[in-house]
Amino acid sequence: MELYQVNFLPWRQQQIKKKIREFLLFCFVVCCSVIIACIFLLLFQQIEINDLKNRKHNSQLQYEQIQQLTLQITAQQAQNNRLMNKKRQIDSIMENNQFLLRLLQNLSTITPPKSWLTNLQLMDNKIEIKANSYDFQDINSLSLQLKKHPGLSDIQLKKISRMNQLNRLHLTAKYQGEFDE
């Protein structure tokens, strides 16, 4: 005997099929939504990665520019230091020349009236003076005046001589640069 199955509730079958379709449609929509969300997340992540790459590239460019500027500043500081040293040397030479100018100007007032200078040499912070006079007191006075001069030191008498009526003086001294008058 064979039994046949008879469906007395066809509407239930249809309702089950409908629920299965709805469930599959819902699953499809959820899967599509998840895929779309993943695609958006991937796109946003790619945008962020590109932004970070651009920042990194810009940072590297700024770092290279900073390095170049640092090198330029270092070179300019070295040049500035060289120029400052040169300026100091020139200032020192200028002060020395000013001292020598004042010394030469003072020599005319230091030299007694009846005496005259026959030789004046400057060499390596030393000055050599030769003078003549008819009066021995004038030669002595010149020697004393030079010893009192504020810019001269280590005054050494090399030679005093008398030939006929002429007294001769030869001395050396160290000059020290600038002095105040």
Describe the model.
- This protein is an alpha+beta fold and 181 residues long.
- 63% of the residues lie in helices and 22% in strands.
- It has helices at 10-110, 136-148; strands at 115-123, 126-133, 152-163, 166-175.
- The protein has a four-stranded antiparallel β-sheet, covered by helices on one side.
- A hairpin with a 2-residue loop joins strand 3 (152-163) and strand 4 (166-175).
Mean pLDDT: 88
> Uncertain regions: pLDDT < 50 for 5+ in a row?
none
CA-CA gap between termini:
150 Å
Helix/sheet category: alpha+beta
Approximately what portion of the residues adopt beta-strand conformation? 15-25%
Spell out the key features of this protein.
alpha+beta, 4 strands, 181 residues, 4-stranded antiparallel β-sheet
